[in-house]
Inverse folding.
């Protein structure tokens, strides 16, 4: 008998709870003239199973957010009014959350047979389609303020929504050509947060944008190339894709050439850079070819290429002068090392010393020119000239040593 009484009490309690939540919904409806207050009132109904399983509850919650959004959005166009953009964008995000949940709950009821067909999908889809462009403004404002989490939320929503089932019949959303562009911005925001999973998700969409896709590929390369578990295979594939799609972007070409050099595949790198130069003969790519020729010990070819870079003027002149110096200096260093292993009385030693002096003498003017063009970039000329002056001109050595602060 007690068990029956307990069950009856439980049923009475459940009915009371359901009634209470339904009362909350009714109270919220009555307060719709003050949407901010109505939104607060309805919050408990969104987490209680008795009302949260009703699509109308979510539709109503979304309607309150829409009212707040509309009020603030109107202020953007009225003279003398100032919109509260934080409130505007917060309501915007909640509209997507609540209307999407409305559709999800309604579709579950259709699938279970509780409803014959959806009644609310078309309406909520139309409302979200109208305000969806505002997500890009919300994302931009957040990004510019350094709120990268907010930027990722809004840009991500813009990119994700075309895949929502409610938009299946809305071509203007489903086939939105702006999605790859906005995906780039989502990837950049995720990159600032070091959110690798979000980077991979959005960058793989953003990389397909013809102009801005290189940004996503750069983000992907950073994800695969760094971190605790770098993936060299994925990194190389991304860099090669960047070279193919965006051959004018130095980032991809430079990284690919470095990879080939490190792996001892200079011949492959030269073949690749020749193809790139055929389509885009920039000073940078010419400079890269010269570096590859130098790595391949084709010093005459490298010198000719670096002279072509210098003749074009503009960027990489100082670097090219320095590398021409390297074409003489480093072969001389091999002879210096050889001489360190033989006797000074050996006739070969004197012949080597003469050759070293000649090659140092050829290198010096090029390092000096690099110093003239970029006096602050001591890596291009500092130690090289010190070595040369020590050998050829002690007075210049002393002056340079003092200049470098040694």
């Amino acid at each position: 008998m007690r068990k029956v009484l307990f069950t009856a009490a439980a049923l009475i309690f459940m009915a009371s709870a359901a009634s209470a939540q339904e009362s909350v919904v009714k109270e919220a409806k009555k307060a719709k003239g003050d949407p901010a207050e109505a939104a607060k009132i309805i919050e408990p109904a969104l987490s209680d199973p008795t009302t949260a399983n009703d699509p109308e509850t979510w539709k109503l919650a979304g309607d309150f957010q829409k009212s707040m959004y509309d009020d603030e959005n109107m202020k953007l166009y009225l003279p003398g009014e100032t919109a509260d953009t934080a409130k505007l964008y917060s309501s915007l995000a909640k509209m997507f959350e609540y209307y999407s949940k409305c559709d999800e709950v309604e579709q579950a009821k259709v699938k279970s047979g509780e409803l014959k067909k959806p009644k609310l999908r078309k309406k909520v889809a139309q409302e979200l389609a109208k305000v969806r462009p505002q997500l890009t403004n919300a994302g931009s404002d957040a990004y510019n303020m350094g709120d990268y989490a907010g930027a990722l939320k809004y840009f991500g929503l813009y990119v994700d929504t075309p895949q929502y089932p409610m938009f299946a019949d809305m071509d203007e959303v489903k086939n939105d050509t702006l999605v790859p562009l906005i995906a780039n911005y989502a990837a950049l925001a995720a990159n600032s947060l070091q959110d690798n999973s979000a980077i991979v998700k959005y960058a793989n969409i953003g990389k397909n944008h013809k102009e801005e896709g290189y940004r996503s590929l750069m983000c992907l390369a950073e994800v695969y190339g760094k971190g605790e578990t770098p993936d060299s295979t994925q990194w190389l594939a991304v860099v090669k894709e960047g070279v193919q799609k965006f051959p004018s972007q130095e980032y991809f070409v430079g990284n690919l050439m470095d990879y080939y050099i490190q792996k001892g595949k200079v011949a492959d790198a030269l073949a690749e850079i020749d193809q790139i130069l055929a389509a885009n003969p920039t000073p940078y790519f010419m400079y890269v070819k010269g570096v590859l020729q130098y790595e391949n010990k084709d010093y005459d070819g490298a010198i000719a290429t670096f002279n072509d870079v210098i003749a074009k003027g503009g960027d990489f002149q100082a670097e090219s002068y320095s590398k021409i110096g390297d074409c003489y200096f480093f072969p001389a260093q091999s002879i210096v090392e050889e001489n360190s292993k033989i006797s000074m009385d050996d006739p070969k030693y004197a012949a080597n010393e003469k050759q070293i002096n000649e090659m140092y003498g050829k290198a010096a003017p090029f390092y000096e020119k690099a110093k003239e063009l970029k006096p602050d970039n001591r890596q291009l000329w500092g130690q090289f000239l010190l070595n040369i002056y020590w050998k050829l001109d002690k007075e210049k050595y002393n002056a340079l040593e003092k200049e470098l602060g040694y």
